[in-house]
Amino acid sequence: ALPGAGAVLRGSFGKPMHGGRTHKEDDRAGASLDADRLEFPLVVRNRRPGDLYRPLGAPGRKKLKEILRAKGVPAADRDRLPVVLSQGGIVWSPGLPVGERYKITAATREVFTIRLVKSRSRRGGDAGR
Predict the structure, then answer these.
(1) Taking all residues of the chain, what is their mean pLDDT, rounded to a whole number?
(2) How would DSSP label each residue in 58-123?
(3) What pLDDT band is residue 37 in, cutting at 50, 70 and 90?
(4) Out of 24, 56, 94, 110, which could bridge 35 as a Cys pair, Cβ 3.0 to 4.6 Å?
């Protein structure tokens, strides 16, 4: 549950699509990742100063703050976005593509999908449902 955000993050495992094609989805609501590249448990926290992230297809790492600013995310919203990490590396944040290191490829054997789901409670406290 994401208190104050009115949402819950849910994860599930599955098989990749035939031919290793990438999963197309709305990156504001979820992400599909190569499960073998993740180290569990994943950590969810807010953005921190100095966070570096390499988005899918990018040539190198960039500051998360700069990427969010370039995408037009208002400053007040940037610090409220959940950031999902594996071993300290940014995996995904709503509205951004998955991290390059965690992308699905033809070699992917198992997919881990994260979905951002609006909670039924205004406080986001329905994690058990």
Answers:
(1) 86
(2) -SS-EEHHHHHHHTT--HHHHTTSEEEEETTEEEE-TTSPPBGGG---TT---EEEEEEEE-SSTT
(3) very high
(4) 110
